[in-house]
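Illustration 12: HTH-type transcriptional regulator GltR.
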Amino acid sequence: MDLRSLTIFQTVARLGSVSAAARELNYVQSNVTMHIKQLEEKFETPLFYRHQRGMTLNTEGRKMLEYVDGILRDVAELKHLFLDNDTPSGTLKLGTVEIVSKLPTILAGYYEKYPNVDVSLQADVTEALIKKVVEHELDGAFVSGPVKHALLAQQLIAEEELVLVSSSPSFDIASVAKMPILVSNEGCGYRARLALWLKEEGIEPKRIMEFNIIETILQSVALGLGITVVPKETVTRMMEQDKVYCHELPQQYASNTTVFIYRKDAFITNTLASFLQYMD
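Figure caption equivalent — predicted structure in token form:
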């Protein structure tokens, strides 16, 4: 058993297919099959359920994956520890909520200063990004904050004004109960602010409609489909064109803080350290 076997096992477990793992790792399929078989012989137990759609971890396989993930993560940190040099390079795996107004400026400036770093960016809602950073799937992420988590450190990026957006120039709180609420998926920071406000007012929304793309939400609001809550800066142009109208929220719900989170117990590579320093 060696690191290659563990990497193959981890990849098959993630992709659920020997052929898919072989393609990703650039191995022949028989080689992948052989390594899986050797692991099962070594531990004297099957690790997968085999079926027509591929392979799924069984109970013993899931148990083994927890250890394999830890071993390979530790090996990766060892490589960073001994092979990292003074010039940031490699890939920086980041996550972001959909609306971070400063993000383009941050990324453009960082790339200009450190052209040897490849930034991989993944969009999701705050709750999902926190989970991915905690589980080492991302080096860090831009999320709605503040974040309270024992494993995470955070760095302030921006504070933005939140507004309620509708297609009508007039608005009152009672109308919320009569109109659909247009929001991102569960775990979005703006949605959480809106939910807290409505709960305090004792209002049950008529309908909640979920969208994955903020532009779709805003276009739907402009067409009169419903209302939403987003940072004011996001809708400035549409507001100037009289496509939508912004309404103030109660002070305790009218601001959103964006923070950059990362694991405080993980080894900070030169690449991540340079990114944190650049944003400071």
